[in-house]
Design goal:
Length: about 170
């Protein structure tokens, strides 16, 4: 069991409707199982605002994806083991915010709505033990979770992380 931190830096979100392609580099991240039998447990979503405008309502959604990202690349995300002495999982999870097959947020499988003002604001969700957001495998709709901006608001730049465990 390896615990990871998937970070994203200075992403300016673009509000995207459900069931529409997420635009490369404008969503916080997707977290996808590295194989067909890998389970991930997401413990925390965090976003910190870096917007230059005093009014930057940012509507963030963590959701399962009805179309999973294909050939995912990091973009401005990073994925690192939290425990310096741990070994990486045999099958490494996929994290990024660029993909050749664009992920699409499901219209019916929203998990969390985390709205905040990106002008210096923060938003954080963390799970109690046993209440983590989970994925299984690497196919729609259970194998991938995206963290992205929903339509509406005037999002500003944000940085943050997603903490998760690969089983």
């Amino acid at each position: 069991m390896a615990r990871y931190s998937a970070t994203y830096t200075s992403v300016t979100p673009v509000g995207t409707a459900d069931a529409a392609n997420l635009v490369d580099g404008t969503y916080q991240a997707i977290v996808q199982g590295g194989g067909s039998a890998q389970q991930l447990k997401i413990n925390e979503f965090y976003a910190g605002g870096e917007a230059a405008s005093t009014s930057s309502p940012t509507l963030l959604v963590a959701a399962r994806d009805s179309v999973v990202g294909g050939t995912v690349t990091a973009g401005n995300t990073r994925n690192a083991l939290l425990d310096a002495t741990a070994s990486a999982a045999g099958v490494v999870p996929v994290v990024g915010n660029n993909a050749t097959t664009k992920p699409q947020r499901s219209a019916t499988l929203h998990l969390l709505h985390l709205s905040f003002n990106a002008y210096g604001g923060i938003v954080r969700w963390f799970a109690r033990p046993g209440e983590e957001v989970t994925t299984f495998g690497n196919t729609a709709s259970l194998g991938e979770v995206s963290f992205s901006a929903y339509s509406g608001g005037t999002p500003g730049a944000i940085s943050g992380h997603i903490l998760y465990e690969a089983l």
